[in-house]
């Protein structure tokens, strides 16, 4: 792990995973066992997993697409 957090740590890739695993989890008391990327909801008839992903982009209209 680098001594300083760099812009690349926010890319969502390996450096982000390293930062979370090596800095945040130990600081939060080993919460990695709860670090799923979904919420499990117990319903009367079944259990479902819900996950949400989002992107923030500006401008909302850009060459080749839009949000």
Please, could you describe this protein's structure?
It is a single chain. By secondary structure, the chain is α+β, with helices and mostly antiparallel strands. It has one domain (7-59). The protein has 1 helix and 4 strands; from the N terminus they run αββββ. It has a two-stranded antiparallel sheet with strand order 1-2. Strands 3-4 form a two-stranded antiparallel ribbon. It is flat, with a radius of gyration of 17 Å. The N and C termini lie far apart (36 Å). The mean pLDDT is 83.
Give the number of helices: 1
In spatial order, strands of the major sheet run 1-2
Helix content: 10-25%
Which whole number gives the mean pLDDT? 83
List the helices and strands and how they pair.
Layout: H1 14-27, E1 39-42, E2 47-50, E3 61-62, E4 65-66
Antiparallel strand pairs: 1-2, 3-4
Structural features:
single chain; 67 residues; alpha+beta; two-stranded antiparallel ribbon; two-stranded antiparallel sheet; 1 helix; 4 strands; flat
């Amino acid at each position: 792990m680098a001594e300083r957090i760099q812009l690349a740590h926010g890319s969502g890739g390996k450096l982000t995973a390293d930062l979370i695993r090596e800095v945040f989890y130990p600081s939060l008391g080993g919460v990695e066992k709860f670090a799923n990327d979904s919420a499990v909801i117990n319903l009367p008839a079944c259990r479902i997993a819900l996950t949400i992903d989002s992107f923030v982009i500006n401008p909302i209209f850009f060459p080749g697409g839009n949000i």
